[in-house]
Design a protein that fits this description.
The structure is a single chain. By secondary structure, the protein is an alpha+beta fold. It has helices at 2-18, 22-33, 38-45, 51-90, 109-123, 137-140, 178-186, 227-242, 295-300, 317-325, 338-341, and strands spanning 127-128, 134-136, 160-161, 170-172, 191-200, 212-223, 248-253, 258-267, 284-293, 308-315. Helix 1 (2-18) runs parallel beside helix 4 (51-90), helix 2 packs antiparallel against helix 4 and helix 5 (109-123) packs across helix 10 (317-325). It starts with a helix and ends with a helix. 28% of the residues are buried. It binds phenylalanine.
Length: 344
C-alpha cells in the first residue's frame, strides 16, 4: 500500500509538471484529490488494514495529500502568472503613436456671415441684441405702422400661432423689425442696435425663398439724425464688408415703418459694376432695405419725433452669403448636407 501511495504521488507530480493551462488543473485535482480520486480511494481502503499499519500508512497518505495540495497551489499561481504575462504582451499598445484625428466642427456659413455683419456694426458703435421669434401682432405689424387689414400686410405672409382663443394675435415674426419697438420701449435715445435672428414666412420655397431665414435689423435714434447719417453708416458698412472701393446706391422704396424708405445697393464686387453673372448684368446688387424711422413709430414708443429722429435697416445674411460665395440656391443652407457645409 505504501508503494502504491509512492506510485500515485510520482505520477501525480509528473502530470502536474507537464500542465500548461489553468483549466486542466481542475481535472487533475478531481482525478487525485477529488471525492472518488485515487488518493481518496487509498485512504478509504485504510479500514481493512491492521491497526499498526493503518497508522503509518494513514500518516503517509495524509502527507502525500498535503504535498499534492501544496504543489497544486504553487502550480496554479505559476500558470496564472504566465497567462497574465502573455495577455499583457498580446494587448500591448504603443502609447507613443500619434492619436487619431478628431474631426473638427465649424460654424455654419450663415452664422459666420451673421457674426461678421454684427461685428462690423459693433465697430461702428452698435450694440447686438436679440428678441423673440414668437411675436405678437402688435410688435410685428401694428406698432410698425401696419394696421390690421392694411394691404401692406400682404408683403409678409405670416405663420399664425393657434392660441385656442380664435384670435390672430400670436405669430412667428416675419422680420426682425418688431425689435425696433421692443428696444425703444425699454430705453431712451441714443439708440444704436443691431438685431440678428430667425424669421419665418409662409411661402413656397424656391432658389431664393425659404420659409425660415435670418435677418439683421439695425436701428439708430438720436437728436438731429438725418438721412446723411443713414447714408454714411451704411456706405461705411458696405465698404468694410464688401471692399474699400464699393460705391453705394440709394433708391426709393416703400416700407410702412420708414419715411422716406430706400433700397440700398452696392456696385457689384464681382465686376466692379461692369456686369457679370453675380449681378445678372445689372452692375448693382441690392443688399438691404432702409429708411428714416417713421414719426408714427416714434410716437408709438413715446419718443418725441420733433426732438428725435433715426434710421433703420434690415438685411438678409443668406443673400449676402449667396452673393459672396456664389451659391445659387438658398435651400442649400438648411438641407444639412455636410458636403455643402464643409466648404465654408
Ligand atoms: N423689415 C423689412 C423687411 O423685412 C426690412 C426693413 C427693415 C426695411 C428696416 C426698412 C427698415 O422687408
Amino acid at each position: 500500500m505504501q508503494d502504491q501511495l509512492t506510485g500515485i504521488e510520482a505520477q501525480a507530480v509528473a502530470e502536474l509538471r507537464a500542465m500548461t493551462d489553468v483549466r486542466s488543473l481542475e481535472e487533475w485535482r478531481v482525478a487525485y484529490l477529488g471525492r472518488s480520486g485515487r488518493l481518496t480511494q487509498v485512504l478509504r481502503g485504510l479500514g481493512s488494514l491492521p491497526i499498526e499499519e493503518r497508522r503509518t500508512v494513514g500518516a503517509q497518505a495524509n502527507e502525500v495529500k498535503r504535498r499534492l495540495e501544496a504543489l497544486l497551489e504553487e502550480k496554479e499561481a505559476a500558470l496564472r502568472q504566465t497567462e497574465l504575462a502573455r495577455e499583457l504582451e498580446q494587448g500591448r499598445i504603443d502609447v507613443t503613436l500619434p492619436g487619431r484625428p478628431v474631426p473638427l466642427g465649424r460654424l455654419h456659413p450663415i452664422t459666420q456671415v451673421v457674426r461678421e455683419i454684427c461685428g462690423t456694426f459693433q465697430q461702428l458703435g452698435f450694440q447686438v441684441v436679440e428678441g423673440p421669434e414668437v411675436e405678437l401682432d402688435y410688435y410685428n405689424f401694428e406698432a410698425l405702422n401696419i394696421p390690421p387689414e392694411h394691404p401692406a400686410r400682404e408683403m409678409w405672409d405670416t405663420f399664425w400661432i393657434d392660441t385656442g382663443e380664435g384670435e390672430r394675435n400670436v405669430l412667428l415674426r416675419t422680420h426682425t423689425s418688431p425689435m425696433q419697438i421692443r428696444v425703444m420701449e425699454q430705453t431712451r435715445p441714443p439708440v444704436r442696435v443691431v438685431v440678428p435672428g430667425r424669421c419665418y414666412r409662409y411661402e413656397a420655397t424656391d432658389a431664393t425663398h425659404e420659409s425660415i431665414f435670418y435677418q439683421i435689423e439695425g436701428l439708430a435714434v438720436d437728436r438731429a439724425m438725418t438721412m446723411a447719417d443713414l447714408k454714411g453708416v451704411l456706405a461705411e458698412f458696405a465698404r468694410r464688408m464688401f471692399g474699400q472701393n464699393r460705391r453705394v446706391r440709394f433708391r426709393c422704396d416703400y416700407f410702412p415703418f420708414v419715411e422716406p424708405g430706400v433700397e440700398v445697393s452696392i456696385d457689384c464686387f464681382g465686376c466692379n459694376g461692369m456686369g457679370c453673372n453675380i449681378c445678372r448684368d445689372a452692375g448693382w446688387i441690392e443688399i438691404m432695405g432702409a429708411g428714416m424711422v417713421h414719426p408714427k413709430v416714434l410716437e408709438r414708443v413715446n419718443y418725441d419725433p420733433v426732438e428725435y429722429t433715426g434710421f433703420a435697416f434690415g438685411m438678409g445674411p443668406e443673400r449676402v452669403a449667396m452673393l459672396r460665395y456664389g451659391i445659387d440656391d438658398i435651400r442649400l443652407f438648411y438641407a444639412n448636407d455636410i458636403r455643402f457645409l464643409r466648404q465654408f
